[in-house]
Design goal:
A: alpha/beta, 5 helices, 31% strand, B: alpha/beta, 13 helices, 43% helix, globular
């Protein structure tokens, strides 16, 4: 049993909780910094990345999130990917900035261009329906980053060590395989951590 | 690649990303930037805020596309805009400009008193107002991907939004507790599509996101609407008709996020300055009640 948080400042929080609830995990909606303590992993949900960053700053979440990222696994979807990225196109600096990727916001266009499409994802047997909403993509990855999925040659899912991120919204489908992938990462990471202690 | 735009999932999903947030009315790029800076999840680009529309009287139409364009270029958060109820061309024009969401809104003067837009036909998603569950579900049936209470726009008086949200929530609870063989009669009574009642029974909530709108003027008003089960709030005149728009905007965003943290709401409400002037609903002539527009 692991304890996984969903950052609960704004966005598709309920959907992530629902997707995770079926797993062997206790789920906490994180609205305050102290709730990060004793979590084994954290999900950064989709929402408006600009808004989330404002709220993160207002509640002094940035340093605690960086500290959390230095130790524990994080899964970011859409806006969550932007928060995790080390480099963001057209933006000076980063947010949490721990995943060695360069991402681009609203890269597929405005809502009019938002779409869904079946995606082959490394590690999953069958295609996953990717729901892209004003979605970003990853332009460049560092050498330790594993690309998990592309769409029209754009990188839309990747893993860098204990960080997992995707440009689309697995929480808007009934398919929980991406969430399972993350829970497996959390379990694996916790086991390794216990082994080295 | 097999790529589909404008699906229900994509349209409704966009509203899901707005949950827990505040959508603010703005009339120019400068206001849009203040809204974005304060943490708004989206802005509604208008020529005039509802209280000014109310004061001006006459026919209120879609905003000048120059204003919409100016706002679209000023911010990276999504931009919404209003079209008149039933105005197919205003909706198509806004869609062609790349507006992210269209509000088929009773704040503007309806152009069709019988038919709302067939919103399923558009790639852009729509939000619509409702006073009760029947009205809400008729709009979803027509393809609305997001709902909001109508309230009474431009009054700074939240009483109607409270009435509408309470009624909708109690009607949802009633359906959740009904047996399936009672639902067709309830559909008849509500004048709502039967299939949507089945969905509500299964989900225990509306199939789309439902925000509060119409008369929200203070951080405590916003928190109240969240407490009553809204997924987020629209603030129209409340911000830019207040004494200090920057402070009001930030305070309303915070109160919406932490709507049950009363100490925090007390702190952010201190020295905010004067909220927009309010209007007692009973002093409105029946013809000035915007909520009666549409059905």
């Amino acid at each position: 049993m692991v304890k996984v948080g969903v950052l609960g400042l704004q966005g598709a929080i309920r959907e992530h909780v629902k997707a995770l609830e079926t797993k062997e995990a206790e789920i906490i909606v994180v609205k305050r910094v102290e709730q990060l303590e004793d979590l084994d992993g954290l999900v950064l949900p989709g929402g408006e990345s600009t808004t989330m960053r404002r709220l993160i700053d207002q509640y002094g979440f940035l340093e605690p999130l960086k500290a959390f990222a230095a130790e524990k696994p994080i899964f970011g979807t859409c806006a969550g990917l932007i928060l995790l990225s080390k480099h963001i196109e057209g933006v000076d600096g980063s947010h949490i900035g721990v995943m060695d990727v360069r991402s681009k916001r609203n890269a597929f266009g405005r809502q009019r261009e938002s779409f869904e499409a079946p995606l082959p994802i490394k590690g999953l047997e069958e295609d996953f329906i990717g729901v892209f909403i004003r979605a970003p993509y990853i332009e460049e990855v560092g050498e330790d980053v594993e690309v998990l999925a592309t769409f029209n040659d754009k990188i839309v899912a990747a893993r860098h060590g204990r960080f997992l991120a995707c440009a689309f919204h697995p929480e808007l489908t009934d398919d929980d395989r991406m969430h399972q992938m993350f829970i497996d990462m959390v379990l694996e990471f916790k086991k390794e951590g216990l082994a080295t202690e | 690649m097999n790529q589909q735009t404008g699906t229900d999932r994509v349209k409704r999903g966009m509203a899901e990303m707005q949950k827990g947030g505040v959508i603010m009315d703005v009339v120019n790029a400068e206001q849009a930037k203040i809204a974005e800076e304060a943490g708004a999840v989206a802005v509604m680009a208008l020529e005039r805020v509802p209280s000014d529309i109310r004061a001006a009287g006459g026919v209120a139409r879609m905003a000048d596309p120059t204003i919409v364009e100016e706002v679209v270029n000023a911010v990276s958060i999504p931009v919404m805009a209003k079209c008149r109820i039933g105005h197919i061309v205003e909706a198509r024009v806004l869609e062609s400009m790349g507006v992210d969401y269209i509000d088929e809104s009773e704040v503007l003067t309806p152009v069709d008193e019988e038919f709302h837009l067939d919103k399923r036909k558009y790639t852009v998603p729509f939000v619509c107002g409702a006073r009760n569950l029947g009205e809400a579900l008729r709009r979803v049936g027509e393809g609305a991907a997001m709902l909001r209470t109508k309230g009474e726009p431009g009054t700074g008086n939240v009483v109607e939004a409270v009435r509408h949200q309470r009624l909708i929530q109690s009607q949802i609870r009633k359906i959740s507790s009904m047996s399936e063989d009672e639902l067709m009669t309830e559909a008849k009574n509500l004048q709502a599509p039967f299939e949507l009642l089945l969905q509500i029974k299964e989900l225990g909530r509306l199939p789309v996101v439902n925000f509060a709108a119409g008369g929200i003027a203070t951080p405590a008003d916003a928190a109240l609407m969240m407490e009553l089960g809204s997924d987020g709030v629209f603030v129209g005149s409340g911000i830019f008709k207040s004494d200090n728009p920057e402070k009001f905007a930030k305070a309303i965003v915070e109160a919406t996020t932490h709507y049950q943290d009363y100490e925090l709401i007390a702190n952010i409400s201190k020295n905010l300055g004067i909220a927009m002037p309010g209007i007692e609903i009973s002093s409105l002539k029946p013809s000035d009640r915007m909520q009666e527009r549409g059905w």
